[in-house]
Amino acid sequence: MAWTKKVMRVNLTEGTISEEPLNMEWANQYLGQRGLATRYLVEEIDPKCDPLGPENKMIMTTGPLTGTMASTGGRYSVVTKGPLTGAIACSNSGGFMGNEIKNAGWDMIIFEGKSPKPVYLYVENEKAELLPADDLWGKSVWEADEMIHKKHQDPLIRIAVVGRAAETGCLYAGIINDLHRAAGRSGVGTVMASKNLKAVAVRGTRGVGNIKDPAAFIKATNEGKKVLSENAVTGEGLPALGTQVLMNVINEVGAMPTRNMRDVQFEGSSRISGEAMKEPRPGDGRPNLTTNAACFGCTIACGRISTIDQGHFTVENKPEYWGASGGLEYEAAWALGSDCGVDDLDALTYANFLCNEDGYDPISFGSTLAAAMEMYEMGVITKEHTHGVDFSFGSAEALAKAAEWVSKGEGFGKDLALGSKRLCEKYGHPELSMTVKGLEFPAYDPRGIQGMGLAYATSNRGACHLRGYTVASEILGIPEKTDPLVTEGKADLVKAFQDATAAVDSTGLCVFTTFAWTLEDISPQVDAACEGDWSVEKMLEVGERIWNMERDFNMAAGLTGKDDYLPKRLLKDAAKTGPATGKVNNLGEMLPRYYEVRGWTTDGVPTRETRERLGLNPDGIGV
Amino acid sequence: MLRSLQIEPEKCTGCLQCEMACSYQAEGVFNPAKSRIKIFTFHEEGRFVPYTCTQCSEAWCMHACPVEAIVINEATGAKEVRADVCVGCKVCTIACPFGTVNYDQDSKVVYKCDLCGGDPECAKACPTQAITYVDANHTGLDRMRAHAAKNLPGASASA
User: Fold this and answer.
1) Of A405, A399, A181, whose CA–CA distance to A305 is shortest?
2) Whole-number Å distance between alpha carbons of A457 and A407
3) pLDDT at position A388, please?
4) Which residue in the set A156, A205, A296 is minimally distant from B31, CB to CB?
5) In terms of Cα–Cα distance, which of A518, A524, A523 is closest to A473?
6) CB pair distance less than 8 Å for B48 and A205
7) What is the chain A residue with the closest CA to B124?
């Protein structure tokens, strides 16, 4: 139980909405959220379809623990085929949207086709309707959110929206809910806008029940909360400094990608760190950080709420940006900051506000801008392209302007909206794109953290830290410390992290809990809530099944083992400073062993035996 | 000794664990929409504020009720709604200056905080002690202590 066992299907082409029962056989094999929605997607779309065509589908999905008292149990995911990568895309968001969908009585919403005109979906418990969105189209996330609340005269509606970036075709647009929480990566917002779907607005008042064993569930979730509160990272570091607790740590170990990954340490890191966010500014004497904040049900509360100095050049005479809003997480601070060489904290915060206001991924945006800055320094991109703005590394003005252009899809912003891979190809320097499978890197340099190189190369949605966070082991010693500079044992480590994470992403819980929780903490919570057996072993099996199904989707979409690569820079150009000095990433030492422990061929294809063992189609997908 | 809910908004992170605990105790499901305590988010200010019934001594809701459906629980001081007596006229919802008694469309009677019979779930669920259940005669104790500490260099402001 814990599932509502109801799926809403929205056919945007026909303008029809129907209800169907959740496939419980699949729920038993894939649990929920990431896994279960991927199972639906695999069944329903041609993996070779155009990600931005009407034949692609987009699934908004909750997990069985979404909407319950389990700590962090408010997550939802968006699963679709991604426009940057042509691979499976799955993006996870917090805030208060997932729980609202669940409270309205739905496990997932499947969007198919394409609406002839802009529409938004309004859900009030059992009632759902597509309403015209002509007036919302062309509006930012923040404007649309306010307009929908006013229109329904209901401040309690939860809304997920795409902004102008998605509407104008930015390939890394996300879906923003609650003004500043995002299903941010891999372009799921671009897919939503391609369907002429502007927003999903939900009001749910039915409650989440159907807990298999309520007493055991309350006990298990209370024990879980105790572990989180007593852990140094989830109980102290994250609430105090947010994910930005990592900025100084990662810089010190020499794994801070800097200036389009030319360097592995950033001299300005202490000025854009979590600690810096708490220091009073010279301008107005107030700190950048206003408060920490929690997503639904979260007892960690790592969220950052920030305010920009009203006298800062980015917001002078722009009072609409003077209020508090979603501040810098580590990934955004890195991408907008270190990777572009910018150390102006309020400028990063401004760019981050714009990413939320118009819905695009600050990681991909920052990384793409970093590639543009490198080409500017080479003279490939000039002031003629950049409307006269100096695009040198370190330019806070360039960062602010670039964000303004991408927000509205204007001028050079159209080039930046292509993402790093296509931008670098357009300007004749594909080798400068720091991407895997077309998705931009996150904030851990794989020369200083070897296992992450393998995790990036093999991640099913492209370069991503959230698919197998071996940083936990290699840097933080969770669950046990491994040497970040060696490759030995990393293939097994990456597989273990990937499988466990796929399972966690299918529960409705937040992956940040795994700084403190292992599946030993999570499985009792799932098991008490859901019918069936949800032991650690079962969760790991489910995780491995999900991973292989995603892999098979990608194979069917036309990807091969050759797409498990890293950019040459990370394989050839050694780290120049820090503990990893002289090191490149030795992917070649890890990949064959990884294929072996995965039960894949030497070309990286799951074998018949592996598929059969996991209950997948032995011939793969679409065969 | 009577106890009161004490709310310290500056400690609240807006996680809604209290709303879930409240609704689960009262309704048997996790349903913030039916919670007797509500968290208000002031986005532009970056503040979260829990709000619920303060259990007035001379309770407007109780005096306004024409059928005496709102009664005092002498053990806890809570003003409790007798659902089997309430006729759903909603006069109490108009009388309450704070908006903390509300009508429920599903049950067709009003509902409000009853302090869970003296062991409020919201206070137990709050991960940051923004909601506590303290001696009703001394809800100002922590603030008094903090101010007292100001006159004593080096003293800790918290107990």
Assistant:
1) A181
2) 30
3) 98
4) A205
5) A518
6) no
7) A222
Take residue B127 and report the two structure tokens written for it. Answer: 């991960």
Map tokens 């004749």 to a residue. Answer: A428
Could you give the CA distance from residue A42 to residue A21 in angstroms, rounded to a whole number?
Answer: 18
A6-203: CATH topology: Aldehyde Ferredoxin Oxidoreductase;  A, domain 1 (3.60.9)
**Domain range summary for chain A, segments of one domain joined by +:** 6-203, 240-252+258-433, 448-613
CB of A42 within 8 A of CB of A621? yes
Q: Residue B113: which of B79, B143, B140 has the closest Cα?
A: B79
- CB crowding A118-138: b at 16 or more within 10 Å, else e: bbbbbbbeeebebeebeebbe
CA–CA separation, A421 and A436 (whole Å): 9
pLDDT at A45 over 90: yes
* SS3 (DSSP) at A12: coil
Q: Look up the ipTM and state it.
A: 0.95
Burial of B45 (0-12, 13-18, 19+ CB in 10 A): middle
- Predicted TM-score (pTM) of the model is 0.97
Alpha carbon distance A429, B40 (integer Å): 50
Tens-level pLDDT at each residue, chain B (159 residues): 899 999 999 999 999 999 999 999 999 999 999 999 999 999 999 999 999 999 999 999 999 999 999 999 999 999 999 999 999 999 999 999 999 999 999 999 999 999 999 999 999 999 999 999 999 998 888 889 988 998 887 766 554
- Nearest CB among B16, B23, B43 relative to A297 is that of B16
Size of the A and B interface in Cβ pairs below 8 Å: 84
Smallest CA-to-CA distance from A144 within A73, A197, A107, A66 is with A197
Indicate the class that CATH gives domain A448-613: mainly alpha
The verdict on a CB contact (< 8 Å) between A179 and B33 is no
Q: From the options 1.10.150.530, 1.10.569.10, 3.40.50.720, 1.10.443.10, give the CATH code of A240-252+258-433.
A: 1.10.569.10
